[in-house]
Write a structure and sequence with these properties.
- The protein starts with a strand and ends with a strand.
- The chain is α/β, with parallel strands linked by helices.
- A nine-stranded mixed β-sheet has the order 14-13-12-11-7-10-9-8-15.
- A hairpin with a 5-residue loop joins strand 9 (about 215-225) and strand 10.
- The protein contains eleven helices and 15 strands.
């Protein structure tokens, strides 16, 4: 593998997942970090033996950077990614790719025009249990897909939202539990079950109505092609961070994922798989797929191969979320275009 100079923008909660993955690749060198908090940027730069910046445009202009990792608040993802690609830098951005389909379409356009590689972090696709499900689906032995169930029940209180003024706002977060917490599991659902054709949904703010302007709870009903259906429920109002649940019903098997994987085949046999990707600690329910995803991104970049979670692929779930929010706002069933 050829060598890559890497930079990172945003030193919040998720950035160390990227740092650890970069450090594990001998061909990758972290040359710079950037954060608007000068003290944080200086401290992290010293810790990682690289240069620190408070302005990402200055960093991109002064450093020789091959790939920039964007780990900033949601409203900065699109403008930072677009600026980087326009200045010759490849981009790996945290979820969500953008706050809406207008932003993601512009990011895709710029990536195509500049020839830069745009990747998005949906790291749970790389969990061993999820990879096993994908393999079974691709083999074609499960029969026709019939139904999906997606549940995310996590805990986010007012103190969490008070950590940043962007949190809990439409203009800077782009939504609530759906676009921030549940987006990973919603992405897995559409990746494994297929792209839904329409949705009817409702959103509410039960617990945090005094702290945020977006939803803390959402639920809805999908129609898929060929008559399949799906339900989803997501909330930040639970008292703990419970492992996500994903059930997929096929003609020949029922697949149940809640931390571990259970497959119940129609002939009575069962398959069980522990999820070795989960890690201990306060954020263990995130999974630990960042390392596998980031390594795959650099391998694809090195070998000139398409990265599996590129702009068009990552934009699919944003189209789904846009439709959910429109349905909740209007009370109507909304068609989902462009899967």
């Amino acid at each position: 593998m050829k060598s890559f100079n890497c930079a990172l923008i945003g030193l919040g909660a998720i950035h160390m997942n990227h740092v650890r993955a970069i450090e594990a690749l001998p061909e990758c060198k972290l040359v710079a970090v950037c954060d608007i908090d000068a003290a944080k940027a200086e401290k992290k730069a010293e810790e990682l033996n690289c240069n620190g910046y408070t302005d990402y445009k200055t960093m991109l202009g002064q450093e020789q950077i091959d790939v920039v990792h964007i780990c900033t608040p949601h409203y900065l993802h699109a403008p930072m990614a677009i600026y980087a690609m326009e200045h010759g830098v490849n981009v790996l951005v945290e979820k969500p790719m953008g706050m809406n389909s207008r932003e993601t379409a512009e990011m895709i356009r710029v990536a195509k025009e500049t020839g830069r590689r745009l990747g998005v972090c949906f790291q749970n696709r790389y969990n061993p249990t999820v990879q096993r499900i994908r393999t079974l689906i691709d083999q074609g032995d499960l029969g026709r897909f019939l139904s999906s169930k997606t549940i995310v029940s996590w805990n986010r209180d007012a103190a969490y939202y008070a950590q940043g003024a962007w949190r809990g706002t439409w203009n800077e977060e782009g939504g609530g539990v759906l676009i921030n917490q549940a987006i990973h599991t919603m992405d897995l659902t559409q990746w494994l079950a297929g792209f839904p054709v329409d949705v009817q949904a409702q959103t509410s703010c039960f617990r945090l109505h005094d702290a945020i302007e977006v939803e803390d709870t959402a639920h809805g009903y999908f129609h898929y092609p060929d008559g399949a259906t799906g339900i989803f429920y997501a909330t930040n109002a639970f008292g703990a961070d419970d492992p996500v649940e994903l059930d997929l019903v096929f003609e020949n098997a029922t697949i149940r994922l809640k931390k571990d994987l259970l497959i119940q085949y129609a002939d009575g046999t069962e398959e069980h798989m522990d999820d070795q990707s989960l890690v201990s600690g306060a954020k263990g329910y995130w999974g630990n797929g960042h390392t596998a995803l980031i390594h795959d991104y650099y391998t694809c970049l090195d070998e000139g191969l398409p990265f599996p979670i590129d702009g068009p692929e990552a934009a699919k779930i944003i189209k789904v979320l846009d439709a959910i929010y429109r349905s909740a706002a209007t009370g109507n069933r909304i068609c989902i275009q462009g899967g």
